[in-house]
Amino acid sequence: MIIDCHGHYTTAPPQLAAFREAQLARLDEPGRAAPAMAPVTDDALRESVVNHQLKVLRERGGDLMLFSPKASGMEHHVTDPETARAWAEASNDLVHRVSLLFPEHFAAVCQLPQTPNGPLDGVIAELRRCVGELGFVGCNLNPDPSGGHWTSPPLTDPYWFPLYEVMEDLGVPAMVHVSSSCNPAFHTLGAHYLNADTSVFMQLVQADLFGRFPGLRFVVPHGGGAVPYHWGRYRGLAMRMGRPDPAEHLRNNVFFDTCVYHQPGVDLLTQVVDAGNILFASEMLGAVRGVDPATGIAWDDTKGYVDGAGLTAEQLAMVYETNARRVYPRLDALLTAQGR
Amino acid sequence: MIIDCHGHYTTAPPQLAAFREAQLARLDEPGRAAPAMAPVTDDALRESVVNHQLKVLRERGGDLMLFSPKASGMEHHVTDPETARAWAEASNDLVHRVSLLFPEHFAAVCQLPQTPNGPLDGVIAELRRCVGELGFVGCNLNPDPSGGHWTSPPLTDPYWFPLYEVMEDLGVPAMVHVSSSCNPAFHTLGAHYLNADTSVFMQLVQADLFGRFPGLRFVVPHGGGAVPYHWGRYRGLAMRMGRPDPAEHLRNNVFFDTCVYHQPGVDLLTQVVDAGNILFASEMLGAVRGVDPATGIAWDDTKGYVDGAGLTAEQLAMVYETNARRVYPRLDALLTAQGR
């Protein structure tokens, strides 16, 4: 089977955006009561995905998508913890309901109610609620809740450890994914996302986080940012710094997705990164929509690139399925319970 | 001939570092007189390069290097303009003297006395001094003088236009190069440099800077950061934003160097970027020193990768020589005067 480990609910019914607007408006009027989201019917949820993510997934030969709230909408730069909690809860609840409506095609991954350098207790509580009560299989972790100002400590800092303890305990990985950029120097989709992937990978090269948390697993999206293209740079830097070779050091803990939108990029990724550390993904409907006029192929139809990258059948099985089941053991349990 | 467009004076005599220390110490004691740099003899300058950059350049078959002060040492985050002026002047003067001692092998590129969001008049004055009086052929422009806090406007903002007018007027390009990171989230060599390359490229995709400054040219170092690896992403984003195809839009104004330290990376670069937009470079002795134990080849021996990338003889001539002479017309004039 083919598992797409990186999809976002970018087509949620308009009640979600209206709720967010009401939330943000209220922050300017502290006396106002907290808004509630208008009800969304199951039919509206079905309609929001059947002709979008689900249709495209099936047309391209995919079976199941790891589905999380829209990344650019997480907006962790909003500093009020209670607003962040209610926003993550509403966003996650919709994703949860989609996964219940289409249990064969969507497994849920949660947004965390992070705030810039805020306390992590609310983050941990929402993770426990989603995984423990609702059957989520993973989470998205934002290394820069400030939205492009990078005011948080590196992911190797003890600030994050309480969260990691719970992730290990629950057996869920995190996709390292920033949200919208509030910094005009960084375009959200064309710079901030890729910079975050690159920066976090280097943070992990510098320190020995996984010696302390051997069961902690991160998926670095967008093909690992700049990392595979500069694989020699990272190997050379690690050696110069007296650090172990990244391929060995991070083998059991760090994985790249295949959200790289042209054949030469996916060729490079599969050439330099071990197939055991690559998870198939498209991030559709996401950053880059439409068709390359030069090839007639949709930019984010990454399955075509992966199929064309010259991997063996065994490697393809790892990239398409077995790596994801290993990195997300709760997904494996769900699928096993379905007889898949 | 083979021109390496990206080398830094990372081996300057110790008087330069001592001067910097004295400069920084003085900032804590405002009453103290400005320090002067201890004299450096021509012999000391010769010795500082003959067994380092010059030796490696010649051993690897290179003829000439565009030589600028150490990038991580520019330290534009220090906010005092007079300190920045004296520091750039001292650094540039040494590079200038090296270029006079070895005119066949080094052409000078200057550091600019930038400060975070500071006025550009001192920057322009130093550019005019270096190019007009000392024969420099280009400059390094830092898009983030804050050193990892990214407080400056994008390079497409009018803030920068007075500098661009002078660059056009003088006929010199800029290599877009940040300095040390002061942000623990960004490792200087493993994240900040690459993020800057990626971010600036996207800034240039978003706006029409070269419609206003058709003669302005930027070299994006380190193989363009994450850009060539994500070439499909940039083409797709540009199309979605109603912007022209980056390859067309930036053809006459934006160039990538070849500082990518493994064969698959250089293969990708030369596959997706037109040979007319690639300039040979190694950045030695720079970020990544030493030999890959898997191949026995020095990481930054990029000539081997470029030779192995399957380019035609005509394309190789462009990458090794003619593109650099076109992008740096003052270099071309220098070489022509030398009969080369």
TrEMBL record, chains A, B:
GO terms for biological process: secondary metabolic process. GO terms for cellular component: cytoplasm. Keywords: Lyase. Pfam families: Amidohydro_2 (PF04909). One of its GO terms (molecular function) is carboxy-lyase activity. InterPro entries: ACMSD, Amidohydro-rel, Metal_Hydrolase. The keyword NADP does not apply. SUPFAM superfamilies: Metallo-dependent hydrolases. This is Amidohydrolase. It comes from Streptomyces montanisoli.
